[in-house]
Amino acid sequence: MYYIFYIYLFLGIQVMSVHGFKCRCGKPSDGIVSMRIVGGRRAEPHAFPWTVAILKNERMHCGGAVITNKHILSAGHCFKWDDFTSMKVLIGLDNLEDLNKVEQRSISNVIIHEQFTSTAVRDENDIAVATLNQPVVFSENIVPICLPQPKEEFGDRVATIVGWGRVGVERSASKVLLKASLRIQSDEQCMESLLAKHLKPMMMCAFSKGKDGCQGDSGGPLLVFETNGTYVQAGIVSWGIGCADPRYPGVYTKVSYFIDWIQKHTSDGEQCD
């Protein structure tokens, strides 16, 4: 992706033109009009073109999001106890049973946050950057997600979670990308839940009745739609107790808490923004 850059100062968004394609981070495919996802519905094909599936031994393992032409943002626990050389990344994917035009990559390196820790209940500093063995070219179906501003808060915002994970505790993974709307809780609301004693400042909660992210959605993006027409990745699917249990909101890694760390480990990649 060796591109001409155009800067839209009034949006603060960088746009790259490649063979007529102008890349804006977080922008759904122009063809779009308008977890394991429990309570989710079918996402319009390629409506979330940064979302990737990470497979291990040909089975759905985790989700992730394209942030540069060679880097995927995901959860640390997706790689901590697993050999990333046995994984592959499907980029530009909608249907796991239709890999036509889907870019497949292996992973050449993974950096897990240095302060990642895990207990029987929670994962802390649960973030990782995976490097692809070969860069991808941005297109209508492959677009990087926008990152938030450092320390940006999203409390009480409506967010979207997307993924191919299991659609129920005892059910199999979805073959097509699903989406569900959740409301991000303020830190104060999050601390009022039964999870309070397990929470840390780099975590955020989101919940809507009957909807949640489950196994297989780990590492996937929690997205907020901005007024400039682009999505920003507010969170990373991290941990929870059960799935869609009203007593326990889902817990996500706050991406805005780690902007400097992300930029440090993706500086050799190309971006739209």
UniProtKB/TrEMBL annotation:
GO terms for molecular function: serine-type endopeptidase activity. It holds the Pfam family Trypsin. Residues 37-267 form the Peptidase S1 domain. GO terms for biological process: proteolysis. The keyword Plastid does not apply. Residues 1-20 form the signal peptide. It comes from the Eukaryota. SMART domains: Tryp_SPc. CDD domains: Tryp_SPc. Keywords: Disulfide bond, Hydrolase, Protease, Serine protease, Signal. This is Serine protease like protein. It comes from Aglia japonica. The lineage of its organism: Eukaryota, Metazoa, Ecdysozoa, Arthropoda, Hexapoda.
